[in-house]
Specification:
single chain; 401 residues; alpha+beta; Helix Hairpins; Heat Shock Protein 90; 3 domains; six-stranded mixed β-sheet; 59% helix; elongated
Length: 401
């Protein structure tokens, strides 16, 4: 074979010449297509997809056409061009189908997003979406769920804020009015008997102490709601915390004639702020003593279960109506009729504070009706979940009677 002859009898110089023409024509068509796509960047995806197919088909047609024009006879050239035209039409048909599918899917997705403003719920399109649009739909659904949860939390915080304002207007204003009346009576010398004056002074001191406790509770609750509760955590034995709280509550229980019985396990280390967690436990115990009638018994138990340290406080309050159980930890909730506030009742902030403190320690708090009253349960993560000794309770002891 001669050196300048290539395949099918085409000389190498002619083959190079054909290749150069095909490359030049393809580059020109490609740049024209890119320019057209830039001009139509804001138009439909279907149109841009059609342009991409048109550019590809035109490049192929030009390349085959040049080769057919130079290498084939008229009949063969016509057949080749007809086949290329049919292939191009097939490509256009597929491009239009895919483009139409994309447009339909995009419109369905846009319609689902617009419906959120009317229904408040994002409902994914019922049709099967392409992978990318389906991923976008799932992301929108997840985002909508997070926004719904955020709105629910915002509504809960707003409701709690309104309850707090109502609490301030009532539980603080009422004792202040009493203090003003007593001080005015003393100033105007309406009360001059030394014994009555002493009683007024004692009552004023009690009301001031009560207001101080209420304001401290309010400040604590505001820090909890703001997520700014400072915690100085360290490893502490839960049984030691329980015993300290029981020791501090013993005089109050004895004065009311309420019995305290406890049973605590050993080896229950928890990573907590002892001061704050002690406050939460004191709030639960004070609440139990307040609502337990004289000569009844309050049972406190601390044990480990499934890697969690558990403390339960069971009182004899008579139970809480089932409909009120979900609201027990709400601000200023006291409940009716078993928990009607009396003149020495708290302001209804003890249980919300206890819940905030427990949750700040990544724990859980719950309440249920059990036996003659209700049972409050705190669960905290153990530092060493495999501590088997924590499951063994000591014998029950009676602290107050």
């Amino acid at each position: 074979m001669h050196g300048d002859v290539a395949i099918a009898g085409i000389q190498m110089s002619d083959l190079v010449h054909i290749t150069e023409r095909v490359i030049v024509l393809s580059v020109v068509v490609t740049f024209l297509g890119i320019g057209l796509l830039k001009m139509l960047a804001a138009r439909s995806v279907a149109l841009m997809l059609t342009i991409v197919v048109a550019v590809s088909a035109l490049c192929s047609l030009l390349g085959v056409g040049v080769i057919a024009w130079l290498m084939m006879g008229t009949a063969d050239r016509d057949v080749m061009l007809d086949l290329m035209a049919i292939a191009g039409l097939g490509g256009f048909a597929v491009a239009m189908f895919v483009g139409r599918r994309l447009v339909t899917s995009t419109h369905a997705l846009s319609s689902a997003v617009r419906d959120v403003s009317q229904t408040g719920v994002y409902v994914p399109p019922p049709m099967t979406l392409p992978a990318e649009l389906n991923e976008l739909s799932e992301a929108l659904s997840d985002t909508h769920q997070r926004l719904a949860q955020a709105r629910a939390r915002e509504r809960a915080v707003e409701a709690s804020r309104r309850e707090l304002v109502a609490w301030v207007s009532h539980d603080l204003r009422t004792p202040l009015a009493g203090l003003r009346a007593m001080t005015e009576a003393l100033e105007d010398q309406v009360v001059i008997d030394p014994r009555e004056v002493s009683q007024y002074h004692t009552q004023i001191r009690r009301e001031v102490d009560r207001l101080t406790v209420m304001i401290d509770d309010l400040f604590e609750l505001s820090r909890i709601h703001a997520g700014a509760l400072p915690l100085s955590r360290r490893v502490a034995g839960l049984e030691d915390l329980v015993l300290e709280v029981l020791a501090s509550a013993e005089p109050v229980a004895r004065a009311k004639g309420v019995k305290l019985a406890w049973a605590a396990g050993r080896g229950m280390p928890v990573f907590v702020d002892p001061s704050e967690m002690g406050r939460a436990l004191r709030n639960l115990l004070a609440n139990a003593i307040r609502h337990t009638p004289p000569h009844a018994c309050i049972n406190v138990q601390a044990h480990a279960r499934h890697g969690m340290a558990c403390v339960s406080v069971s009182d004899a309050c008579g139970g809480i109506p089932p409909g009120d159980l979900p609201r027990v930890f709400d601000v200023a909730f006291r409940g009716q009729p078993a928990r009607t506030p009396g003149p020495t009742e708290g302001a209804g902030l003890g249980l919300p504070i206890a819940r905030g403190i427990v949750e700040a320690h990544s724990g859980q708090i719950a309440v249920r009706n059990a036996g003659p009253g209700c049972q409050f349960l705190i669960r905290l993560p153990l530092v060493r979940p495999d501590a088997h000794a924590a499951t063994r309770l000591t014998s029950t002891r009676l602290l107050a009677s």
